[in-house]
Design a protein that fits this description.
The protein is of the alpha/beta class. Helix content is 47%, strand content 10%. Helix 6 (170-181) links the parallel strand 6 and strand 7 (187-190).
Length: 307
């Protein structure tokens, strides 16, 4: 049994000015997560622009990160691929470099066909040395499986030991998955940028897998919740929610801009498709950061909100 619980941020992929990945910057971001008290680290995932990385880039970055972490916290390797053979290769790469589980998205191409999804995960499991975390994301990236389908797939493929649930309503789905499959799972995590984290924790989620830029805040929230200080957990959640809502629109570009303003990332270039911040968006982000700072959200790496 692999025990995973708490805050597991998904690291973004930093890129240099000419567009190549920057492994040194990635390791500095990992250090920020560790210094913040993260319980584990996930890489690469959707928040890492994984769909834009070549297989060689993925392998190189996973090797660098795994070696840097060196077992200090659990490392969940993102191994999603529409081809189960390739997903197993990604999982094996992670295992070579210290990963404890492989996060694999239920593929969109299989849709809600339970037999097709079970066949996909069975093929991965047959060749993967790691236990599997089934990532259930909504279309167009994922299949958006309902909890009954997830239960059936878990029953068919016992190597699936964890679920990362990101399909709305996330909280209700966490409850239903735990009711139907708790005896066959080691944990259900919330995702969706931690925008529903308190509800998920109240329903028994093992933890959350957000983007990186507020990991220190989310660690404080998690510790408050575990200590029974629900009001403090909710205060931190409420204070962070405007920034999480902003990130829901601009995704990795918002993540990287907040990290830049906190002095944690120099270059904010991104390969992923999606909206780009315009001058008014940058002014709005500055206002949100100023408000969050006044509410005591940032204890270290306070943002340079005027930049």
């Amino acid at each position: 049994m692999v025990e995973l619980t708490g805050v597991f941020p998904v690291l973004p992929t930093p890129f240099m000015e000419r567009g190549a990945p920057d492994p040194s910057a990635l390791l500095r971001l990992a250090d920020f997560a560790l210094e913040s008290g993260a319980d584990g680290i996930v890489y690469p995932g959707m928040a890492s622009e994984v769909e834009t990385l070549t297989p060689a880039e993925r392998a190189s970055l996973v090797a660098a990160l795994g070696g840097h972490l060196n077992g200090r916290v659990p490392f969940i390797v993102g191994a999603s691929d529409a081809d189960p053979a390739q997903a197993a290769i990604r999982a094996s790469e992670g295992a070579t470099h210290g990963a404890t589980a492989a996060m694999i998205m239920a593929p969109a191409k299989a849709g809600r066909d339970i037999a097709a999804q079970a066949a996909f995960f069975a093929a991965v499991a047959a060749a993967s040395p790691l236990p599997i975390m089934l990532q259930n994301a909504p279309p167009p990236n994922g299949a958006g499986l309902d909890p009954e389908a997830i239960a059936a797939i878990i029953t068919a493929v016992p190597q699936i030991r964890f679920v990362k649930e990101e399909t709305l309503p996330c909280g209700q789905h966490v409850s239903l998955i735990l009711v139907s499959s708790a005896d066959r799972l080691d944990g259900v995590f919330g995702g969706a940028g931690a925008r529903y984290v308190v509800d998920e924790l109240a329903r028994g989620a093992a933890g959350t897998m957000p983007a990186l830029e507020l990991v220190d805040v989310q660690v404080r929230l998690m510790r408050a919740w575990r200590d029974g200080r629900e009001l403090e957990a909710r205060r931190l959640y409420t204070s962070s929610l405007p920034l999480l809502t902003f990130q829901a629109v601009f995704r990795v570009r918002a993540t990287k801009e907040v990290l830049r303003r906190r002095g944690l990332l120099a270059a904010t270039g991104a390969r992923a498709a999606g909206p780009v911040l315009d001058p008014q968006d940058r002014r709005e982000l500055r206002a949100l950061l100023q408000l969050a700072d006044r509410e005591g959200l940032f204890l270290a790496h306070r943002p340079e909100t005027l930049s």
